[in-house]
Amino acid sequence: MKVALLGFGVVGSGVAKIVDGAENDEMGDISIKKILVHTPAKMRQDPRCVVDINEILDDPEIDVVCECIGGLEPAHTYVKEALERGKSCITSNKKMIASFASELFPLAQEKGVALAYESSVGGGIPWIANIERIRRLEEVKSFRGIFNGTTNYILSAMDQEGSDFAECLQKAQELGYAEADPSDDIDGFDVRYKVALSCLAAFRRYVKPEDIITWGVRRISKQDFIWAKDHKLSIKLVGQARENKGGLSAYVLPLMFRNDHLLSNVSANFNALELDSANLGTAAFVGQGAGSLPTAHALVQDILDVNEGRRLDMSQAKPAELKDPEAASYYLRTKQGEFFDQAGVIKEQVGKDAYVTKPLPLSRINDLAKQAGDDGLFLAEVEL
Amino acid sequence: MKVALLGFGVVGSGVAKIVDGAENDEMGDISIKKILVHTPAKMRQDPRCVVDINEILDDPEIDVVCECIGGLEPAHTYVKEALERGKSCITSNKKMIASFASELFPLAQEKGVALAYESSVGGGIPWIANIERIRRLEEVKSFRGIFNGTTNYILSAMDQEGSDFAECLQKAQELGYAEADPSDDIDGFDVRYKVALSCLAAFRRYVKPEDIITWGVRRISKQDFIWAKDHKLSIKLVGQARENKGGLSAYVLPLMFRNDHLLSNVSANFNALELDSANLGTAAFVGQGAGSLPTAHALVQDILDVNEGRRLDMSQAKPAELKDPEAASYYLRTKQGEFFDQAGVIKEQVGKDAYVTKPLPLSRINDLAKQAGDDGLFLAEVEL
User: Fold this and answer.
1) ipTM of the predicted structure?
2) Do B133 and A133 count as a contact with CB atoms less than 8 A apart?
3) Looking at residue B269, what is its pLDDT?
């Protein structure tokens, strides 16, 4: 089976390293034939490099296209074109696949080829594969987890060292855990894509990323950690979803929860993903959520599955309208305490500018938090 | 595909419940044809019950035998006979399969049938499946984990409530987590079988259970928890193994380790299993380690894999001689402090009858602890 790589950055070069370096028989006749790079200068990196996507799309020998470019375009167009031409596609691009899932999976089904995205959620954690395995026998009821290693590194450092957010973000950037523009991580968008993709795996629902209520950790402060510690709570950025009779709920929010819970001891840049199903109860998967080799490992696992003829069956997948989860209490830090008090949602003030709300629908606190006109507002769900 | 169940207890009836109750198409044409029970009186439970094993062995329609009897015999003879007759076998019987692996896997290979044991380690945790998946691409270097839910329940309760061992064991027995004769759990034999089986999955090595140095938690006391807490350590019963140039080491011992580690927050009757491999780094799997439905779920997963034609390839598996792991420090509580002091292994006394040793080979402290002639001795490895 001949593979083409689109992109030869951190992930793409990891894939090449694993496939080229395979010593055992596992890889069989799988090999990388072409690698798309975007400038002629980069062609010197490897004799298999090409700069024209058509050299890959028009090559009938290439069975599988592995997309590791990132971003929406041209990644989306390339994958769509490859599927149209009957090539299986594998992607680690969470933003692209989460945004175009409802277009691309039916296309793959129609063309009878595979479309796989293990590496786009949880890096080296076999999250999608284990969800699919469990679903052979029973329905997944809910999932939740720490989907973003960058923010988890920052929150762990703030918790352990008592440092402030800006300092920990800078350290994460120096270590290469955070991008120069960290918005996708710290504002929760990265988690949002992964939650949408996990909903597809767990519930066979196409969730639009922009429908998922999302609050990040950009405004978290030392004060919030001090209050949490006093109440034996940990703070993590958590993505979660649950399907029940009322419909599907999915959201991304900092969560304050008991510090003797498993997720509390997930530190540094690890991911930890939990799910609940009828017979298994709670199962959790913990590992490297990003990085060249863990992500590349997941991509190559997808290549092996495609080579074995495995296809994700998305024929039952349907668009979803999200509902509110069960009413919950929220922790708010805002200069606009009076605004929330007038709205009648405050249960008590718990510190300077800090409040815990009465149990509320998520959409209610989300609307109020947006209307409050406070750029410095920090919002978290509290499990007391 | 026609399945026969051997045994209709907690696990067997769970398997029947899942297979009979399957609503979706997943189960395809898989059905349970016969169920072996051991007394005619039990035949009234289900019209498919038989009391004579030959009714199953002689039935050419039966493709797969699912052994959930437990114990060495007659489970071993039945599985061997079934393999001889070209039937695939699935077992949740860790003691039997760990003890006879080097006989039964080559027989299955010779007969071209499957032999699967997912449910015998980690209950509902897809531990063996995930090891096999990782091994498609890279070698597992080491594993360690909490393999026994009963002792983990007892240790968690002692830690949280400050109760003593006998009290927590009794509570575990009342809740049905511990057997009337709890030796297999609290003396570490259950973990020993699971470590042997994990060595087969992770390293393709047949390890004799009796070769694995094993110390349980029967003699643990409040005093040990107090000392551990003072040093920010947790205590768990841990099975572990590592393969390196020096050879394979595998052992079962209470482990005192930093209480901010993931394994520290694994409470109640959960299992948590960790492994290390080259590209993935550390990955961990957490879930229900026992119970009717989680274990039955794992058995039915094996049935589905056999139905898809999946076979574990044990053709490279070889017998292993165990070596000592790297030298480590040990915590000892014993009335025979003088004996250990004379042997020159004590680093310091840390409490009444309690000592921490110098770094030692495991076989050395194991030999001394057996020679000391102290029935009340408690031994743990310490990661300081």
Assistant:
1) 0.95
2) no
3) 84
Class of domain A139-288: alpha beta
| Spatial contact of A81 and A68, defined as CB atoms under 8 Å apart | no
Enclosing H/E stretch for B160: helix B149-161
- A172 close to A237: Cβ distance less than 8 angstroms: no
Instruction: Tell if the CB–CB gap between A280 and B300 is shorter than 8 Å.
Output: no
Return the pLDDT at B363: 98
Average pLDDT, chain B: 95
* Cβ–Cβ under 8 Å, residues A169 and A157: no
Neighbours of A44 (CB within 10 A): 9
Distance of residue A147 Cα from the nearest chain B Cα, in angstroms: 15
Taking an 8 Å cut-off on Cβ atoms, the answer to whether A124 and B280 are in contact is yes
Q: Please, what is the Cα angle at B323 between B320 and B324, to 5 degrees?
A: 150
A356 carries a ligand binding annotation: no
Query: What are the sequence ranges of the domains in chain B?
Result: 2-120, 127-288+313-319, 329-382
Rounded to 5 degrees, what angle do the CA atoms B232, B238, B241 make? Answer: 120
Q: What is the pLDDT of residue A366?
A: 98
Report the distance separating Cα A137 and Cα B225, nearest Å: 41
Give strand pairing partners of B29. none
Tokens 């830090």 correspond to what residue?
Answer: A333
The residues on B that touch A, with CB distances below 8 Å, are 14, 18, 22, 26, 124-126, 129-130, 133, 136-138, 260-262, 264-267, 272, 278-288, 291, 293-294, 296-297, 300-301, 304
Query: Chains A, B: CB contacts under 8 A, how many?
Result: 117
B287–A282 CB contact, under 8 Å: yes
More confident site: B43 or B373: B373
Q: Which two tokens stand for residue B9?
A: 């207890």
Residue A25 is predicted with a pLDDT of 66
pLDDT at A26 over 80: no
Dump pLDDT digits (tens) for A180-213. 899 999 999 999 999 999 999 999 999 999 999 9
What kind of architecture, by CATH, is found in domain B127-288+313-319? 2-Layer Sandwich (3.30)
Superfamily designation of domain B2-120: NAD(P)-binding Rossmann-like Domain (3.40.50.720)
Catalytic residue among A194, A236, A335, A358: A194
Looking at the DSSP bridge assignments, the partners of residue A251 are: A213, A240
Tokens at residue A347, please?
């249960």
When CB atoms are compared, the residue of B133, B294, B304 closest to A279 is B294
B94 known member of a binding site = yes
Contact assignment for B287 to A281 by CB distance below 8 Å: yes
pLDDT of the residue at B39: 87
Catalytic site residue A194?
Answer: yes
